[in-house]
Amino acid sequence: MKLEGVFCWLMVAWVALFSGVAFAADEAPRLVIVIDDMGNNLQQGQAALALSGPVTYAVLPHTAHAEQLAREANQFGKEVMLHAPMANTQRLKLGPGALLPSYSETHFKKVLNESLDAVPYAVGLNNHMGSLLTQQKVPMRWVMDVAKERGVFFLDSKTTPSSVAWDVAKQAGVPALKRDIFLDHFQTREFLSQQFLRAVNIARRHGYAVVIGHPYPVTTEFLQDAIPALDEAGVQLVSASALLMLQEQRRLLRAKARKHHDLLSRCDYSEGHDCQ
Questions:
Q1: What is the model's pLDDT at position 267?
Q2: Nearest Cα residue to 203 out of 240, 237, 154, 166
Q3: Which fold does the domain 3-17+27-241 belong to in CATH?
Q4: What is the DSSP string of the chain?
Q5: Sequence ranges of the domains in the chain
Q6: Mean pLDDT, contiguous 10-residue spans, the chain (276 residues)
Q7: What are phi and psi of 58, to 5 degrees?
């Protein structure tokens, strides 16, 4: 698919959803693109790092090329996350740095801290697999304890609809996001196009969307065309931390507006009080 083709179907989304947007008229919808599973393959990882714009990269700890790719990402001005392996319901192999529900709290936190140390410049983390662990509140509280201590955010990859990770993060006061779309379950350009359009539609309806893909060659080639087309269609690509910052700014503005409204409602204008 050439750039013109990507642009055309993005513009279709613009027209189809223009009347139903839920964000401020003067704000562009935002899209976060996270590339998971960085670290095992150097060539594919470096190709993914060459994507334009503020793409976010989630790096598997203790893998052959984790440290090199994390450092190169930082040199390119890209955002780095830890892609933390967590126990899954199918007992699939997790690799080094795995977090298991059988661990004691002390050992669990030690493993997670070592994984964060193994990925230079990590400012956040998300779960690799984790369909078992993210359903359990106690180990997810341990994850958030470490996240809060380290000052990093959490992205729930939502590998199960029963995940409690985002809720636990919010309760713990850890900045958190949830994945909206997996981009490349099937590694064809047709499927990638379909999923990317779904993400754009979500962003237009709700103001933002979070997409997760992988450094497969077909994904990288598709995003080389799709990312420039986003700008043409009025969708802003942002890093995960930038989206969290924008959300926090909105929260503070809403709180300030509510406080101002409450103050005005208590003013006695008949006495000539200054209610500004």
A1: 53
A2: 237
A3: TIM Barrel (3.20.20)
A4: --HHHHHHHHHHHHHHHGGG--S-TTS--EEEEEEEEETS-HHHHHHHHTSSSS-EEEE-TT-TTHHHHHHHHHHTT-EEEEEEEE--TT-----TT-B-TTS-HHHHHHHHHHHHHTSTTEEEEEEEE-TTGGG-HHHHHHHHHHHHHHT-EEEE--SSTT--HHHHHHHHT--EEE--EES-SS-SHHHHHHHHHHHHHHHHHHSEEEEEE---HHHHHHHHHHHHHHHHTT-EE--HHHHHHHHHHHHHHHHHHHHHHHHHHT--GGGT----
A5: 3-17+27-241
A6: 44 37 63 98 98 98 98 98 98 96 98 98 98 98 98 98 98 98 97 98 96 98 97 94 94 78 56 43
A7: -105, 115
Q: For position 15, what pLDDT does the model report?
A: 35
How many Å apart are CA 174 and CA 153, to the nearest integer? 6
Supply the pLDDT for residue 27: 80
Backbone phi, then psi, for 157, in 5-degree steps? -70, -10
